[in-house]
UniProtKB/TrEMBL annotation:
Its cofactor is Mg(2+). GO terms for molecular function: class I DNA-(apurinic or apyrimidinic site) endonuclease activity; DNA binding; DNA-directed DNA polymerase activity; exonuclease activity; phosphoric ester hydrolase activity; zinc ion binding. The lineage of its organism: Bacteria, Bacillati, Chloroflexota, Ktedonobacteria, Ktedonobacterales. Repair polymerase that plays a key role in base-excision repair. During this process, the damaged base is excised by specific DNA glycosylases, the DNA backbone is nicked at the abasic site by an apurinic/apyrimidic (AP) endonuclease, and POLB removes 5'-deoxyribose-phosphate from the preincised AP site acting as a 5'-deoxyribose-phosphate lyase (5'-dRP lyase); through its DNA polymerase activity, it adds one nucleotide to the 3' end of the arising single-nucleotide gap. Keywords: DNA damage, DNA repair, DNA replication, DNA synthesis, DNA-directed DNA polymerase, Exonuclease, Hydrolase, Methylation, Nuclease, Nucleotidyltransferase, Sodium, Transferase, Ubl conjugation. This is DNA polymerase beta.
């Protein structure tokens, strides 16, 4: 397990302890503290364990250190496995309902005696939840809404979860000499924000026998992350992985590989107009090949790769991220597809938190980590004063943080630049949590909504537009506030928000945290066409969070963004000039 996995296991343990009858609140808190403590430590967890460097860390006692060592050395955590086995399944299921914590779950379980989500839903409809102490009709309605949300997103997984699982399998398979080509397909290759399953296609020599194909399938189905085999043959095997996500592996001859990869990459919506294009050229296309149809006979059109497939159809190559039937077919026919932004185009990080608010690492640590990743700058955006739950800064704190940034910038001169910023809360009426004088002292300002999500759509929209019109607001952060598979975003008129932002010269970020990926890719093309510059920000609260930038790149590519459309492809001085000139224009 890596550090993030260990932290997750500790947090899961704390949650299950809180669900356990007659458990000690102090024991659950110890695991919460241990997770936080581990998050503050730098370095590889395996090295920290092997060198005995966990000893003496505040929040990590001898028992917890032993359990962390067990996770790192064996890949298992027996105590957590025992807790899961002894916890009623319905309690664990209820944790997936937005807004349901251990205290409420225990009350419902003990007093209403539900044994399934279906029984909980019926209990809500029968008004049995509203009468419980501390609940009420409003809470009951929210539970019903949460159940509906959970059912809508059942059996879906974050892109980052699917990516991690797929990469483990891909790395293992890539070592097999009999495999010629190997590629992830499906919605994961198209970089959808959530995925239902994983598709992978591998090729072998065209003359490879069944023994070669069966050996690959045996190797695949025996991987450590495979928990169940649901199907296994010579050309396809299906499994369930450790996270619960399903995965299919297809093995084809190498000459068939491009067609099979293209077919199983999808999307279905992309393939329908593509097939119409093929028919207009007297061709047909499926997972076995692209065929020219003459006199009722089909003749295979040889293609070495997917680029050849599109070329044979008289089209530019369409990147997997764009295959969603959002205009890509017509653009490819007319050679009007954009050259999409790449991770290597990024020059810096905008949107990062430090120990000044709720981040886990210091200013210096965040800056040095960005330098190590090849970036030229980092925009620090700790929370504003109203966000007390996140250690929000007072205006005096903001000034003192600026002084620390000045000292570090003197030290880093010529090599790196720390930009002074804030993630300032947007208040209910659309005003900001810091004075204009405080905001004017910063290089840039991100404004975000972190509370009062349930305003009527019109009021929420006006709240956002008022913030957008503020001359000191450069960027709107995570504009819908959604948590993927966790909660819906607040309801507003996104078209009106985008138009207002473009009018006022305000940017809207792509929040690259895999739980958010907000602004949604479906809105990016419109924002781009209105001339908006769109920053990609990891919303990093620790060093590992900086690597979430790649998820933001996936969203940007799905939204048709070019390097010139992304704000932080600018070098440091042009970026600062951008903020200065836009602020002047807004005033």
């Amino acid at each position: 397990m890596d550090k993030s996995e260990v932290i997750q296991q500790l947090e899961d343990t704390a949650t299950l302890l809180a669900l356990k009858e007659n458990s000690s609140v102090f024991e659950a808190r110890a695991y919460e503290n241990a997770a936080r403590a581990l998050g503050t430590l730098n370095g590889d967890i395996e090295q920290l364990v092997s060198e005995g460097k966990l000893k003496g860390t505040p929040g990590l006692g001898p028992t917890l250190i032993k359990r962390i060592e067990e996770m790192v050395t064996t890949g298992r955590f027996s105590f957590l496995e025992e807790l899961r086995a002894s916890t009623p399944a319905v309690k664990i299921e209820m944790l997936r309902i937005p807004g349901m914590g251990p205290k409420r779950i225990n009350t419902i379980y003990d007093q209403v005696h539900v044994n399934s989500i279906a029984e909980l839903e019926q209990a809500c409809k029968d008004n049995k939840i509203a009468v419980l102490p501390g609940f009420g009709k409003k809470t009951q309605d929210k539970i019903l809404q949460g159940i509906a949300f959970m059912q809508e997103h059942a059996n879906r997984f974050l892109y980052s979860v699917g990516e991690q699982e797929a990469e483990q399998i891909r790395t293992a398979l890539a070592k097999l000499p009999q495999i010629v080509r190997l590629q992830v397909a499906g919605s994961l290759r198209r970089r959808r924000e959530t995925v239902k399953d994983i598709d992978m296609v591998v090729s072998v020599a065209d003359d490879a026998g069944s023994d070669v194909r069966n050996a690959i399938m045996d190797f695949f189905t025996s991987q450590p992350s495979v928990k169940a085999i649901t199907g296994k043959g010579e050309t396809k095997a299906s499994v369930i992985l450790s996270t619960g996500i399903a995965m299919d592996l297809r093995v084809v001859g190498d000459s068939q590989f491009p067609y099979t990869l293209h077919h199983f990459t999808g999307s279905r919506e992309h393939h329908i107009p593509l097939r119409r294009r093929a028919l207009s050229l007297n061709m047909t296309i499926n997972d076995y090949g692209l065929f020219k149809v003459e006199s009722g006979k089909e003749e295979l059109v040889p293609c070495k790769d997917e680029k050849d497939i599109y070329a044979a159809l008289g089209m530019e190559y369409i990147e997997p991220e764009l295959r969603e039937d959002t205009g890509e077919i017509e653009a490819a026919i007319h050679k009007q597809l954009p050259v999409l932004v790449q991770e290597s185009d990024l020059r810096g990080v905008i949107h990062a938190h430090t120990t000044w608010s709720d981040g886990k690492n210091s200013l210096r640590e965040m800056a040095e980590a960005c330098m190590a990743r090849g970036f030229s700058y980092v925009g620090i955006t700790d929370h504003s004063k109203i966000a007390a739950y996140a250690g929000g800064l007072s205006e005096d704190d903001l000034r003192r943080q600026g002084e620390e940034i000045d000292r570090l910038n003197e030290e880093f001169a010529g090599r790196f630049r720390i930009l002074k910023g804030t993630e300032c809360d947007i208040l209910r009426d659309g005003s900001l949590d810091f004075s204009d004088e405080a905001l004017a002292s910063l290089d840039f300002v991100i404004a975000s909504i972190h509370s009062i999500f349930n305003l009527p759509p019109a009021e929420q929209t006006q709240r956002m537009i008022r913030a957008i019109s503020n001359p000191y607001v450069d960027i709107i952060g995570h504009p819908t506030g959604r948590i993927l598979l966790g909660r819906e975003g607040y309801t507003l008129d996104m078209e009106a928000v985008i138009e207002a932002a473009a009018k006022h010269g305000t940017c809207i970020e792509i929040n690259a945290n895999p739980l958010r990926l907000d602004l949604d890719w479906r809105h990016l093309h419109r924002a781009r066409d209105l001339g908006m510059k769109i920053p990609i920000g990891p919303d990093a609260h620790n060093l590992a969070g900086l690597d979430d930038m790649r998820y933001g790149i996936g969203v940007a590519r799905k939204g048709w963004l070019r390097a010139s459309d992304v704000l932080n492809t600018l070098e440091t001085e042009p970026l600062l000039q951008f903020f200065h000139s836009r602020r002047s224009q807004k005033k």
